[in-house]
Amino acid sequence: MTSPKSQKQKISVDWGITIIPLLAVLALAVFLIFFPDRATASIELLRGFVINNTGFTFSLVAIGMFILSFYLSFSKFGNIKLGKLEKPRYSNLSWMAMILTSCMAVDFIFWGTLEWAYYFVESPLGMENMTLAQRADWAAAYPLFHWGPMPWMMYTVPAAALGYMMFVKKRPKQRASEACRSVLGSRVDGVLGKAIDIFVIVALLASTSISFALGTPVLTEVISEVTGIPSSQGMSVVMLLMIGVLFTLAVLFGIKGISKLSNVAFTFYGLLLAIFLVLGPTRYIIETGITAFGHSLQNLVSMSTWLDPLRVTSADGTMGFPQTWTVFYYAWWVAWSIAAPFFIAKISEGRTIRQTIMGGCLAGTASTLVSFIIFGNFGLHIQTSGKIDLAGMLASGSATPGELFVMIYNELPMSKIMMVVAIITMVTLCASTFDAMSLTISSYSLKNPKEGEESDWKLRVFWSLVLILLPMALIFTEAPLSTLQALTILGAVPIMVILIIVIVGFVRDLKRDTLQAVPAETPAEEAAPVSEETE
Predict the structure, then answer these.
(1) Among residues 517, 200, 458, 208, which one has the least CA distance to residue 342?
(2) 501 in helix, strand or coil?
(3) Measuring CA to CA, which residue among 362, 505, 338, 293 is closest to residue 70?
(4) Of 348, 377, 474, nearest to 115 (Cα)?
(5) Residue 150: CA atoms inside 13 Å, Cβ hemisphere, count?
(6) Which of 60-64, 100-104, 306-310 has the highest mean pLDDT?
(7) Tens-digit pLDDT profile for residues 236-247
(8) Which of 442, 451, 360, 523 has its CA nearest to residue 84?
(9) CA–CA distance, 311 with 132 (Å, rounded to integer)
(10) Nearest Cα residue to 163 out of 510, 518, 522, 535
């Protein structure tokens, strides 16, 4: 019988996939810290080129994924179970909490509270000279579109594909390259496979950095308001390190630790929503939310497909409103669309393809829409009632997002107590996302993992530390929002190609496995897929 010690010795690390992304992140961090102006200019230049020349491809991928999700869910493939468990491994509530906290983290709080302010002073769909009511309608509606079902289906469809690979095809390697095997064949065992996995890791590190580079300074500002300690870059870095310690402790316990932390984060997140709804302008929040939902639903096709070809909404004729915002969000979802779904796939064992795609999408969409309706419309009411020109201050740069965040919370009764709740919520949400992503990436470092094997705790801690490097560099350089968006967009370009290969291979596997499982006298629609072992 093999001893635990000898089993541990058999775990071998793929150093190429482990070291190359680390070196890439270190190089970018050094470039940003020591040459901030040159780094920002270079990144912005690349962003403009990619957005103006290939931005439409992100829109096509998002629309295609949206359509495909309904086909997979409501065709004969929808009933295929991911694995052989009699019931799902995790309860519905824990499953939903882990999905939400692993994918969005502090974005719920940051963008949910402030995104409307960016749109209030702009002209969505090229509408000029809008009235106050029209500006409010569009400012409330566009966040619901950007965080609605389309982005969530860009998570849940790949999650179903990766879950099928893990629990039906039973492929032990939990990597993007392995998910491309059905299309690329044995080439994924060579340099091409290594390149795919490295691109996925680097893109995830870049896209994750935007969440924490934006959220951590806001968290610092709130802590400063509560404690009286002046906010600074150093304080933001200390906060990021403290969050790193928390999620490192949780990630040592694997998915069980992540599940417990996610439940805590989800509880405080729900409490914060209830506080805003009950203590805020309840009627205005609900009515504006219903109006915005109807507005976004009515204009779903035009919002999804409008790319402003003449750039009439652009101040300098380069990038208009859809390039700055809609395409950016599409690219952000794409950048996460391989790594984040790996975690969703891991926790979806025992669920059907329909449950994974539609259940995850409905849970995610409902939670994000509630966030933007309650948090966002609370701030929008401050704007439209004339109390504080939040949008004007943000547009002019006279206030930082963190300062606006504090102004909004100061409109609540017992504002300091509310800020403490917000601090706990943001910290636990940040830690939950870091946990999920470090656990996912660490599985890439295993060269020959066994079925169901989790990575060694040392690898999880290693990737936990790597995850905070780039956000720390961006905080030091005070990178503007456009630079953060640019990093995400640049990382999303190769991931878009990988995503298409994964989905094509998934559909091909479903059709082939279904046909191979059908005896001559059995109708095809009654077939169930078979694993590679049976094949």
Answers:
(1) 200
(2) helix
(3) 362
(4) 377
(5) 28
(6) 60-64
(7) 888 888 877 776
(8) 451
(9) 24
(10) 510
In this structure, what token pair is assigned to residue 358? Answer: 């539609």
Side-chain half-sphere CA neighbours of 232 within 13 A? 6
Q: What percent of the chain has pLDDT over 70?
A: 89
Amino acid at position 400, single letter = T
Q: What is the mean pLDDT of residues 334-351?
A: 89
Q: Which residues contact 433 (CB under 8 A, 6 or more apart)?
A: 101, 102, 103, 104, 105, 106, 208, 211
d(CA 431, CA 106): 9
Residue 13 DSSP symbol: B
Query: How many other CB atoms are there within 10 angstroms of residue 308's CB atom?
Result: 18
What lies within 8 Å, CB to CB, of 354 at 6+ separation is 72, 73, 74, 78, 79
Task: Describe the chain by its helix, strand, coil percentages, rounded to 5.
Answer: 75, 0, 20
User: Is 245 within 8 Å of 345 (Cβ atoms)?
Assistant: no
CA distances 494 to 43, 187, 198, 228, 443, Å, are 16, 17, 11, 45, 21
Tell me the backbone φ, ψ of residue 81, rounded to 5 degrees.
-90, 140
Q: Is the dihedral of CA 38, 43, 46, 47 positive or negative?
A: negative
The single-letter DSSP state of residue 456 is P
* 59, 355, 361, 506 from 70: Cα distances, Å: 18, 12, 11, 15
Phi, psi at residue 197, to the nearest 5°?
-65, -40
Q: Is 317 exposed, middle or buried (0-12, 13-18, 19+ CB in 10 A)?
A: exposed
Instruction: Please name the amino acid found at residue 115.
Output: E
Q: What is the pLDDT of residue 525?
A: 45
Residue identified by tokens 């999303």 is: 492
Q: How many CB atoms lie within 10 A of CB 494?
A: 18
Are the C-beta atoms of residues 41 and 486 closer than 8 Å to each other?
Answer: no
Structure tokens, 101: 């906290």
In 3D, which of 411, 466, 407, 90 has the Cα closest to residue 266? 90
Q: What is the pLDDT of residue 448?
A: 67
Is the Cβ–Cβ distance between 80 and 344 less than 8 Å?
no
Query: For residue 500, what are its two tokens?
Result: 């298409």
Place of tokens 């870095």: 237
> Which residues fall within 8 angstroms of residue 343, CB to CB, at 6 or more apart?
98, 102, 436, 437, 439, 440
| Helix boundaries (H) for 147-232 | 149-167, 176-179, 181-184, 191-227
Note if the pTM is more than 0.90: no
* 408, amino acid identity: I
Mean pLDDT for 500-528 is 73
CA distance 75 to 212: 39
Q: Which amino acid is at 30?
A: V
